[in-house]
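agent> fetching stored inputs for the iron/sulfur cluster docking request
agent> found them:
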Amino acid sequence: MARRTGSPFEAAGRHAKARSAWRDIPIEQWNDLRWQLEHLVRTPDALGALLGLPAEELAALRAQGQRFRWAISPYYFSLIDPNDPADPIRRMVVPSSQEDLSSGEDDPLGEKHDQVAPGLTHRYPDRVLFVVTSFCSSYCRFCIRKRNWRKSDAARSRDEIDEAIRYLRAHEEVRDVLVSGGDPLTLPHEQLEYILSRVREIPHIELVRIGSREPVMLPMRIDDALCRVLDRNGPLWINTHFNHPNELTEEAATACERLARLGIPLGNQSVLLAGVNDDVGTLKKLFQGLLRIRVRPYYLYQADPVVGATHLRTSVSKGIEIMEGLRGHTTGLAVPTFVVDAPGGGGKIPLAPDYVVERTADRLVLRNYAGETFVYPDGGRPAEASKPAALDVRYGRGATRALPVLSAAAPVDNDGE
Ligand code: SF4
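agent> prediction call returned; pasting tokens
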């Protein structure tokens, strides 16, 4: 078969060995969703051959079985460098002997506790999570919902969807529905259309959001037919889930472009993962790259203590350190909010570096991104109390000296020292 031109392999020019496994697949097949799903990498033998695994690793993989389901689409697999055992994509989707079943929790966010109908979690006053399938085109080792796809990857039945819709109709306080999974954009078109249209026709639902990793893991899914379904059922918001700059391929960019052209605002939720993206340089490159393809970095999640994935967690302080390396060092649009999901359903709690060095009754001493400190008069104080005065505090990166004082009337030019 002739070597194709314009394929994703040549386009990226990386990871030649893994990609060469599908080198002779015509581009039409490669871009065909059904072909991708029919050729998921899901057996130890296939994985062993593609990654050149040594016999003992292969034996361990066989012994491990599918205790946590694993499957990887050829497209997503092609992003792995088979010569690098520490490859970040590999770490996210290839099962490993580090998956310790004795640590971590099945349902770290306590979603089951607040379940009010099949797939429907109603925890917050005005919004719900609607899990409509447990199927994904590839399975992330750190997924917080692996309990849903451990044994089955089925979509919700029509009866289950109808029961959830009845709950939504009866609860007028719900104005925001997050359709999630698994991955809702893997559903057959008619099923997705049914769900979106039933939700949209409820008068008090103002906002419908979709959480999907398909633009990352199987971007060819974002085709014309799917776009028509989404367009018919708008307005929608989509949050996708890029974790590493190696996921920013031409195919992913095209998928996001298609969605953006429908007028769908695109956000991204990344998870902070040890050995994948736990350094400033990697995340800065990712977030800047996302803006280039019209995706706004929205959240950076602390990885939750889900069973079998504790080896992928970092400390919380690592996340704060990374935020410190981003804020002020690149455009604010490229800086997401770092959040911890409180255990047992406590919700998202934003965390940030502490830029307040000192606080008095009428003024703050603040530290900027470069480590320089400034006195700032607090608002809403009597004029006398907020009268600016030079303080002797730490200045710049370590020196102690009298500071210039900021005031609303006479702003200080900070460009100097
Ligand atoms: S794509 Fe999302 S739902 Fe699916 S396995 Fe990955 S994190 Fe979990």
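agent> quick read of the result: The first strand starts at residue 115 and ends at 117.
agent> awaiting further instructions
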